[in-house]
Amino acid sequence: MLSVSCPSCGAPVAFRSHASVMAVCEYCRATVHKDAGAVRQLGKLSEVLEDYSPIQIGTAGKVGARSFTVIGRIQLRYAAGMWNEWYLMYEDGGSGWLGDFSGQFTVTAQRPLPDKFPPFEMARVGAQFDLGFGLAVVSDRREAQCVGGQGELPFDVGDGWSARVVDLRRGPSFATLDYSDGDKPLLYTGVAVTLESMGCQLLRDDEAIKASAGRYRGKVGALQCPSCGTAIAYLPGMADKLVCQACATRIDASTPQAEVLAAGERNDKVPLTLPLGAQAKIGNQDYHLIGAMKRTDDEGETWTEYLLYATRGTFFWLVEAGDQWWRSEVMDEWPEPGTPAVPHVSLHNIRYERTLDYEARVTWAAGAFNWKVAAGDRARVREFERGMASLAAENTQDELSWSRSTPVAADQVRAWFKLPAPPAAKGAGLSASLGELQWRFLLWILGLNAVPLIVNFGETMIWLLAALFALFIPPNIVKKD
Ligand SMILES: [Zn+2]
Ligand SMILES: [Zn+2]
Fold first, then answer.
1. Ligand 2 centre from 271 Cα, in Å?
2. How many Å lie between the centroid of ligand 1 and the Cα of residue 47?
3. Distance from the CA of 9 to the center of ligand 1, in angstroms?
4. Which residue, 454, 476, 474, is CA-closest to 465?
5. Whose atoms come closest to the Cα of 24: which ligand?
6. Separation of 85 CA from ligand 2 center, angstroms?
7. Partners of 63 in the β-ladder
8. Is 473 exposed, middle or buried (0-12, 13-18, 19+ CB in 10 A)?
9. What would the pLDDT profile of 71-113 be if each residue is shown by its tens digit?
């Protein structure tokens, strides 16, 4: 470790990694450049904004068998939000990055760029390129500004530094092309990870986050709509893009200073089967319904999507179309595309055939989401099916994501949310009286036939038993969660 005196204020500035060329003075925010043993001041770098991240300088963990320590950070802001790139120093001397997108993490390291690579303008969402690990799909492309930094970094960064990056995915693999320095990008590849899978230690705990942010990260909190005062429940640091249920004002609460993105006037009252704020017991997890949106396709079909959050930190969507329900999860591992001529995809060697290709439009939204949502948002959706499971690719101009859906029985949804049976539906009444009919029929048969049957045990008895058995088979087997 090299310790130098800050050229601006004299405070000690540490360089723990040989790969670092710059460090931010903790005391005066001067950016200190290290060059052949000499140091000089470059400029200043703003203090990072409080963003509820549990990672901090000093956090340690493992990727596979390699141990790392977090030694630096840049915080970047783009149109849809903010993210952190944490600079990692590995025990074996290597370095890398931990991307931190509001609770979703990737670990990457720099790799040699192949001879063929797309220019930034060509790397459109959905396009495919081979960067040395097979055909990968562009999942998003964005331009961002550095809004703050800490610790040491492998290149010089100052206030106003801007980044141009393209993310790609292939199966569980992740890659970033970083065009910040010009037309020839730097290539970083890696995988999606979780804090648990890295066995992270020295994380900021809930109390520390609350002390600096005023709220616990990921615990359902409430914020008053700056425009009409209605309380909006949300998840600090996890689902913090809000739409007021009463006035449709859109708010970005990704930092404790909530920012109004677009003022609204009134949000139509839309009847929902499951209201915002509803709670469910699914398995042994408690879920909160924090966001809901209505969508429609080109043919006028409409459906509702509900965002559910478990206190342990996982999200899923419940999709309601008519009386059909699906459970849908965003996929970390992407399916592999087939050929354009034969539209299918494969996941774990299982082939899913394309069934639908349509445009979906948001007609109404309210509550909290983990990305910016607004009425009018359009996305192209392609669905692929195999048996009861379906995979869907959803893309906008800026982003592509995959999700996997499976059907859920309406009774199951009612059980999760402790909802009453549907109001006096004919079906329910009929099945109730059927139970009674079954008994009457049974008594009638016994009364009529039991005595002679006992005496004359023959073919009739077999048929009778079969008929009785059929009568008493439960109409459907309710799946227990
Ligand atoms: Zn200083
Ligand atoms: Zn409001």
1. 18
2. 13
3. 4
4. 454
5. 1
6. 33
7. 66
8. exposed
9. 999 999 998 888 999 999 999 999 999 999 877 899 999 999 9
Q: Token digits for 243?
A: 């739409």
How far does residue 355's CA lie from ligand 1's centre (Å)?
A: 60
Checking if the pLDDT of 447 tops 90, the result is: no
**CB atoms inside a 10 Å sphere around CB 469:** 9
CA pseudo-torsion sign 370, 109, 158, 177: negative
| CA separation for the pair 207, 217 (Å, rounded) | 9
Counting ligands in written order, which one lies closest to the CA of residue 244? 2
The secondary structure element, H or E, covering residue 294 is: strand 285-297
**Spacing, Cα 10 to ligand 1 middle (Å):** 6
Give me 61's structure tokens.
Answer: 């963990």
Of 161, 25, 138, the closest CA to residue 85 belongs to 161
Q: Is-contact 231 245, C-beta < 8 A?
A: no
Of all ligands present, the nearest one to the C-alpha of 242 is: 2
Buried b vs exposed e over 87-119: b needs ≥16 C-beta within 10 Å?
bbbbeeeebbbbbbebbebbbbbbeeeeeebbe
One-letter amino acid for residue 304 of the chain: T
Among candidate residues 383, 399, 402, the one with its CA nearest the CA of residue 329 = 402
Task: Report pLDDT digits (tens) over 353-400.
Answer: 999 999 999 999 999 999 889 999 999 999 999 999 999 999 998 899
Q: What's the CA-to-centroid distance between 231 and ligand 2, angstroms?
A: 8
Mapped onto helix, strand or coil, the DSSP state of residue 116 is coil
| Ligand 2: centre distance to CA 398 (Å) | 28
Give 151 Cα–ligand 1 centroid separation in angstroms. Answer: 12
Q: How many angstroms separate the alpha carbon of residue 57 from the centre of ligand 1?
A: 18
Instruction: Show Cβ contacts of residue 12 under 8 Å, excluding neighbours closer than 6 positions.
Output: 3, 4, 5, 6
